Amino acid sequence: GTVPVVVKGRTLLPIRAIVEAMGGTVGWDGKANKVTIKMDKTTIILTIGKKQATVNGKTVTLDVAPQLLNDRTMVPLRFVAESLGAIVEWEDVTQTVTIRYGK
Questions:
Q1: Residues 82, 56, 11, 32, Cα dihedral to 10°
Q2: Residue 53 is inside which H or E element, if any?
Q3: Beta carbons of 87 and 72 less than 8 angstroms apart
Q4: Contact (CB, 8 A) for 63 and 76
Q5: What φ, ψ does residue 4 adopt, rounded to 5°?
Q6: What are the pLDDT digits (tens) for 80-96?
Q7: Is the pTM of this model over 0.85?
């Protein structure tokens, strides 16, 4: 029920449905405001309001930090999808994102 938002040119959205459709899992630690995404051998940890994330223990700097909007955790789509091995395409005319993932 939550629509994606664009912040500083980056699409943020609640990622659980997409990650689960790809075969991964999403965990939430409310005390630390952290999202943990796991799929195959990849683990991504993002923290609300922080531009630093980790992918398999390596620190990565994001263009836009994850945010809480309307009680939903919104994360950068392209960063998460590409970190999990997907291809992300943006169609400017229709404002449409396509995610291609296959094993």
A1: 160
A2: strand 52-55
A3: no
A4: yes
A5: -65, 155
A6: 999 999 999 988 898 88
A7: yes
